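Lab meeting prep.
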Amino acid sequence: MKKLMLSALSGVFLVALFAVAQTEVASINIVGYSKKPVTSNNWAMMSCNFDKVGGGTNTLLDIFGTNQLKGVANLTSCDKIILWQTSNLTYQTYAQRTGFFYKANSVAQWTNAQTQSIVENGTLVPAGVGMWFVPGGGATNKTLTLMGQVVTVATQRIDIINNWQMLSYPFTTDFKLSNTLFFANGAARSGNLTSCDKIIVWNGSSYQTYALWTNGQWYYANSVTEWTNARAQGFTATNPISMSEGFWYVARSNMVWSETNIYLNNLL
């Protein structure tokens, strides 16, 4: 029978294990959840590192349900989820009211969507996509619960464009930038800070940029000075990035990010 090595899934709380079996296990669906603390009045760059329960791609409703986000008539007071659209390099904001998501880039869009009953509950949030959580006015600290099936595929392939995109790690675990396969997949490396791919992480109040040097390692790079000093002192991006965190990726060219599931061999 298949067993799960819990240590491989850092930050995941497992709540159920289902197996379809006759003489042997034919499939396994490991259901779990993670907690994402969000601070009042601060944006949070986040992600859902689970598959949809039952299979398929997660939607906004799958991820957040109907009772986690503050939704009222006044758009300013609503919690908001913002997705980045690589097709036109713009944001699309969504807010929820009475269990329904509506587009909400402006009060007019929010009002019209409700008047015309244009519901966005089914908006897809594929694996590897990051998003902003924006607390509504007068919000207090809260913890979002993100739930789903542990990702059990061997490889995730995500299209990267020559520009900005908001991404997340496409598997159900913490990770380190130094262990990702961006470099192996063709990410631009350079000794010139303006010519290499960058990853930008939001810490709740400010950004930290990392850039890919010629040796294939990510170094601190909020400025040319930081970049130069980090390389000289060997300050690579070895810090782990927790589950439920999103990040910006700034690519110098199109590529496919093909990432390997690092815990798959522990699902025995």
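Slide two material, second protein:
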Amino acid sequence: MGVIKHEVTHILLEPLLERPEAEDYVGRLNWIVMNEGIAHFIGYPGDRREIHEKHAGPIWEKYGAMSGMLRAAAVYRQQGSRGLIHAIRAQSLPYQAN
């Protein structure tokens, strides 16, 4: 039943979530987070409190690593090494590089 709920959620989200362009890596990551995140949440078979209590650490670490890598790549693509140096000094990688 959980798998069916998961897949039906994808169908229901399809007209609501605009797909970003292929080269918009951060936008694609955010789309995946929304689409898969909500579908997994809806389809989760157990007590949803377990998601945070038992699985949050490793999931957030992996998400943080991948998100940060893609954000750094976007900054570098648009601003080069100076953009990365600025991000390090500001202690913040922007969601979308300016």
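Talking points for slide two:
The chain has a mean pLDDT of 88.
The radius of gyration is 16 Å.
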